[in-house]
Amino acid sequence: MESIKLVAVLTIICTVAGALLAVVHDVTEAPIAAASVKEKGDAIMDVLPKCDNQPVKDAITIEADGTSWSFYVARKQNQFVGAAFETVSSQGYGGDIAIMVGVNADGTVQAIEVLLGHKETPGLGAWITGDAFRGQFTGRSIADTHWAVKKDGGDIDQITAATISSRAVTDAVQTGLAVYVAHRDRIAAVRE
Amino acid sequence: MSELAIVSSSPHAHSGSSVQRIMLDVIIALVPAMAAATYAFGWDAIRLISACVLACVASEGVSRKWMGRDLGVEDLSAVITGILLAFNLPPSLPTWMAVVGSVFAIVICKQLFGGIGYNPFNPALAGRVMLLISFPVFMTTWSTWGIPAPLAVDAITTATPLGLVKTAIATTGELPFTFNGATALQLFVGNQNGCIGEVSAAALLLGGLYMLVRRCISWHIPVAYLGTVTLFSAILWLHHPQQNLNPGFHLLAGGLMLGAIFMATDMVTSPVTKRGMLVFGAGCGLLTMLVRKWGGYPEGVSFAILLMNAVTPLINRATRPRVFGAVKKKKA
Amino acid sequence: MTPILTTALTIGGAGLACGGLLALAAKFLAVKEDPRIEEINGILPGANCGGCGYAGCAAYAEAVLLKGAPINLCAPGGAEVLGHLADITGETAKVAEHKVAVVLCGGDVSHAPRKFDYNGVADCRAAHATGGGDKSCSFGCLGYASCSHACPVGAIEMVNGIAKVHRDLCISCGSCIRTCPRHLIKMVPYARTIHVMCSSKDKGPAVKKACKVGCIGCTICTKLAENESIKMAGFLAVVDYEKDLDSDAVIEKCPGKCIVRI
Amino acid sequence: MGASTANFRAPGGIHPAYHKDLAAEQPIAEMPLPAMLVVSMSQHLGKPAEPTVKKGDTVLRGQVIGEAAGFISAAVHAPTSGTVKLVAAVATAAGPRATAITIVPDGEDTWVEGITPCPGWQTLDKKAIAEKIAAAGITGMGGAGFPTHVKVSPPPEAEIDTLILNGAECEPYLTADYRLMIEHAARIWEGALIIAKALEATTIRVAIEDNKPQAIAAMQDAIPAEAKDAQVVVLKTEYPQGAEKQQIFAITGREVPCGGLPLNVGIVVENVGTTLAVWEAVVNGLPLTERVTTVTGGPIATPGNVKARLGTSYADLVEFCGGTSGTISKIISGGPMMGFAQPDLACGTTKTTSGLLLLGPDAVQAYESMPCISCGRCVGVCPMKLMPNELSQFLEAEDYETAEAYNVMDCIECGCCAFECPAHRPLVQHMRRGKAQVMLIRRKQAS
Amino acid sequence: MTFYKELIKGLWKENPIFRLVLGMCPALAVTTSVENSLGMGMAATFVLICSNIVISLFRNLIPAKVRIPCFIVVIATFVTIVDLLMNGFAHELHNSLGIFIPLIVVNCIILGRAEAFASRHPVFLSIADGIGMGVGFTLGLVVLGATREILGAGSITVWGDLKWTVAGYEPMILMILAPGGFIALGCLLGGMNHLQAIAAKRKGTIFTPPAHLDCRSCTLCNLGK
Amino acid sequence: MTEYVLLIIGAVLVNNFVLTRFLGICPFLGVSKKLPTALGMCGAVIFVMTSASAVTWALQHLVLEKLGLGYLQTIAFILVIASFVQLVDIAMKKFAPPLHAALGIFLPLITTNCAVLGVSVLNVQLQYGFLKAVVFGFAASIGFSLALIIYTGLREKIDRANPPKAFEGVAIALVTAGLLSLAFMGFAGLVK
Ligand SMILES: Cc1cc2nc3c(=O)[nH]c(=O)nc-3n(C[C@H](O)[C@H](O)[C@H](O)COP(=O)(O)O)c2cc1C
Ligand SMILES: Cc1cc2nc3c(=O)[nH]c(=O)nc-3n(C[C@H](O)[C@H](O)[C@H](O)COP(=O)(O)O)c2cc1C
Ligand SMILES: Cc1cc2nc3c(=O)[nH]c(=O)nc-3n(C[C@H](O)[C@H](O)[C@H](O)COP(=O)(O)O)c2cc1C
Ligand SMILES: Cc1cc2nc3c(=O)[nH]c(=O)nc-3n(C[C@H](O)[C@H](O)[C@H](O)CO)c2cc1C
Ligand code: SF4
Ligand code: SF4
Ligand code: SF4
Ligand code: SF4
Ligand code: FES
Asked: What does the pLDDT average to over D138-157?
């Protein structure tokens, strides 16, 4: 019968396709997982001070103001040297901006990294990923800095014509730092 | 052989109007605003206006030549595009950017469609918006010149009144100044920051009056536009006076007058029927206020007009007049 | 192995479900329709030139099947399409003779001047309706290229102010013939190359006044042409395309120089 | 006497320069017989008449030389006595060729026998009136030249209550109707009564624009006592108040439906000249062999209103008016808004030749047309409320279907749109061609 | 040789982007840089070749009525494979191409080639077609991507750090935003048409620019007819 | 409530599917010759996109995720969408022939319309709940329709324009779409 043949062909093709995909999935599962872990790990390592542990694994989750924060702890010779955390601003020009912030043990920023996936405008807001903008956060702490862009009377140089993005990053970093400061002891106490 | 008689289809009489004459009238109407611009911004105004006009006329001539068409600059419409584009630029803009905008306006927005009459979008506005998006830094850097408070903090301003309001509302949630008779006068005569053509509402209104008298424009679009803005801003203002300035401010600040009088009225890109013009003007008004109040930009005139340009064919279609005799009337 | 199996089964099941559903739907909800319409539509060239007399290729396809329209109406499609149509409909194919359009006027700007200064729409039909057209000859080609615009394949070129058909590009759709307000264009067998390039019905003296290459009705050609293949229609010599004509004599002897080979 | 005046206007319209002063005060002058008359068989709307004479025949004035070829057609009569010199196709004023009969007058101007005056027309019934009008070959003298006997015999289901006499003469330059109203007011009124009788219409209105006070006064004074409901209506001077649909709307507020006729709203409109011709035909029994034509324009030496035989060549008319001075750039048969431009002065007058207008270079420029700049002026002035800008573009693109949907067939070719267009677009020409093309398509679909 | 002909036709004569005007969504969306264009192009090429092979192999077995669902399943399979592979081995590229990888499934070119070519031709020709069209598509994307990136960002990024920047250039951001995509493609297309017209004139033939966007070259539906 | 309003404004104006997200360009360019045709397409798209959002959401959350087969998204979605469209086609032909005459020719085209698959994938990526997914699908299709209708009006004007030979047809249509998209940039920032 005609229609049975139709159904049969379609079913067979689907089954074969399914099997094939399962195989490929099987093969790529590990690399994909590794790639996303590495993606994160790379970002974390980029912002942390030199350390000899594996911060991705030394993580602690802290609940603050209704959000949960993951802190990745860096140690050198078993000494707490700093931590990295991801902070997200929903005030970006194009939507959420996720930033990886690395702090030293003394609470000063080691470095920040804007994570992929932000939707700021190329050529404008996207400059928040540039060294010039990110660089100015290094060395700042919650206390010694007026956490606002210059336009709003603060200390951070905004990117020209991208105040919104600059503001978003600034706010996000500040919020994260505050959480860090508040919970520094718990974070520093993390052990493998 | 003697000259041959001319044979053409009727009518054999003509009102004597011509495109060139209309365009010349518009240029005349733009003179007061050009004077005001020169008074306010001096050399920069002259520099930008001449750069834009030259670039527009030249690119029109060159592109038409290149397309194998007759020169077509004598209708003067490119001159208007040039002046109006310049009017929409901040005084400090580098000359080369003005030239890029002019070429974009004339070549991409006008000549690619076949030249005058065929362009669906207002070339000068498309040029401005292209520049605004391409070079936001330059397009939002305002000159610093002495302007009395309240339109400027400490007598020097680097922002337009609308920009001031927008940032103030966004940061402090309060209005930066109150709007009173003095502020209105300041805005009206042109003591404010902004694009070179939009500083003086008075000069623009004068030009508009001239165009009305010369029948270059009809009252429908400007009135509907300004009326809708007034209405919309009045509602907002009455609803929440702490967050919204009163309608007078919205009317006088920014590019509204320039847009309503000179740019929304561009006949090529606006509807042909009177009813359509009213719809067009009202649409511009709504969109302008939408952007001013909730949008990412402090000023929405350019976008509003461009968006309404886009729906103009639909408006024309929807507001087709009822043909005489279309409804069967039996004996009265 | 299990995950692979699950996956295969899931997708296979989805395929089964979808396919089954579609098959069922197709079976129970089917609406009858002659599949040949589709087929014919696919075979027709899709130029939508209207030469067949229908609103376009799709309309013709329908007409062939439903209204019994003759299958040899699509000139652009030629023998190939005809063959296919014959196969589908089961009718016999009678290949029409290959014909091309020719503009029967040779009075270009250098031969037939303008009689007034026409100021208006550059369209032959419009010009013809305004003071009868500005050409000195009231029958000749006006040169405003309406036929050229009407031609779906761009086979008509304006040369020196009159229309010329490129015979090898012409697909004999007849669009130009329907357009020309002067009725100057005729469909003639491709094999025929000798034409009287004039359509003026005026008497000799009037033609002479209007045009340097007009037919003055001297009847010389009718005598020279073999087997009466040129006849007089009033004051105009007309080629009878049913009969053979291959004589250089008529071309040479025509005092009006209006018989040419193209 | 219900004689009162009122001021009305219809939608749209323009105010061209009128130039009526050139010929307005020139009384109607009778032109002597020219050396030759070329009488076209296509004098009217509908089928051309069929010639009933051949070369060499002698004819008498008023003798039928062309028979009506069907119902919507009209007979043509010899304008004078003489010999037929030629029966051949010649170009008409409107362009296309049509058969014409060339008559060389014998100078006697002998009337044919059988002319029967009928001063007591009141006893005639409507059919008899219509027959007399048909026999006289009368066609509309104000516009398209529609055979008048058709108009006065409406189908029985149409109830005509109003007859409007069109004395608007809204075309610039032309003054023929104006002179007729001043000089023959009483006859025109009587003609109106005749037509009203044929139509069984009870109301008669005479429409005159307010720039013709003398004509208004003359017509007002001549309102006959026996007319029950007769009035002169003064219209605001605005082109095209003379167009019947607009005029009907201005006077009665009735809108003639799209594609409809005045009789659909119970009205018949007749030109005052036509009415006078009806009077001549019924009361004096005379067929239509002459008409008044305004010969005017800058280059004409002495502009005037000339009563000339049908078939008088334009050249003879110009000669009668003292010839020309200066360059002639345009020769127009009719008025400047709706008339036909001529390549030369060869044509002969017809029943519809209301004017012959010559324009010098100062009044004419050859225009380059530009793309439409969508200024909307044409939309504003179109008395039919069409969108000429869009229509012309559809027609340029040969999109006849859309053009038809946009009511191209309702265009009355008044020329207001093209008059106003700053881009000098040949809008009316587009409409003309479009209408012709749509008619063609419709006819093809019908068959 | 036909194989050769099928192989090169996609480069110019039947270039999917500039001549056939197909697959516009990815063409506009991912061409903000050369790198993305290349990635997208290669992904699509891979899918195109694979699906062409499979469909050509089984073309006589697939009943006409379910051919579209079958083709789609085949294509979707390869798309998912590319998706997975890219996610595993070219993670960053995968991130920046985003949603447009799964959308290769509905890319008109691939289904169009399956329907118009692979289902009617033997395998080796279908491979040629796949390579040709794929490379043509990639080429189109790269040209567009390069134009947009140079004008809009003042740089050319071929892969990762292989990048040139035009010094002192003030980039026209518009070009890498949505409107710039449309305008750049429109202008490039116009330019190509112009070249084509010049070439045609030299050869003495007539050239008409593509006037139809209604998928004429794709026979999936009858809309173009 | 505001959330949904913003979602709709965002999908219709700010991130218009066609003009800023570049989804569904083929039908956008292809079916914009005449207004009636465009309206038919809009009707079909609105129907299909809304229902496809619902169906694929259910598929993803009730089947694929439950089975841990998230990576089969593409193939499963397209299979279901294609069958669904075809089913609608058949059913419509049977039960509503006039509607089929009006919309039928567009249905096959919609199968290969990336907007439909796009909206399904986006619903998953953005982790919308069922209601939100359906509203998003609806709003996106409205956005598509809005752009298509406006564009069709423009196309009718452009078709009567007089571009240079090389730009006739597709090229000028694209430039027009670009300018329309430029105008739509004005909505930027209305919704984050
Ligand atoms: C297309 C476009 C994209 C923009 N993208 C961003 C952006 O990503 N980030 C940003 O802060 N501002 C962006 N802006 C600019 C904002 O609208 C606003 O002008 C600016 O952020 C505030 O101006 P300021 O920095 O000069 O104070 C963009 C503007 C446009 C026209
Ligand atoms: C096809 C046609 C049929 C007409 N039939 C009638 C008719 O039956 N009765 C009538 O009174 N007028 C009839 N008319 C005349 C019109 O009402 C009108 O008076 C005539 O067309 C002259 O109009 P114009 O001079 O404004 O162009 C007809 C006109 C046309 C064109
Ligand atoms: C634009 C336009 C203007 C007209 N102007 C006049 C006019 O001024 N006087 C006139 O008698 N008829 C004028 N007509 C013709 C009338 O519409 C109508 O056909 C005529 O009065 C009918 O009468 P008739 O059949 O006796 O000619 C005009 C027609 C048109 C379309
Ligand atoms: C009243 C009026 C307003 C005009 N406004 C503009 C304008 O805003 N921008 C512009 O480029 N051209 C303007 N023009 C000139 C011209 O109409 C315009 O360039 C056309 O769009 C070119 O086709 C205007 C012309 C007139 C008569
Ligand atoms: S006389 Fe004959 S050849 Fe000459 S222009 Fe007239 S038709 Fe043409
Ligand atoms: S052949 Fe006819 S249609 Fe063609 S250009 Fe000559 S007059 Fe015009
Ligand atoms: S000519 Fe036709 S379109 Fe023009 S104004 Fe008169 S009625 Fe209207
Ligand atoms: S008057 Fe002329 S330019 Fe103005 S809208 Fe009409 S056609 Fe266009
Ligand atoms: S590629 Fe997106 S709809 Fe065709």
From this structure: 88
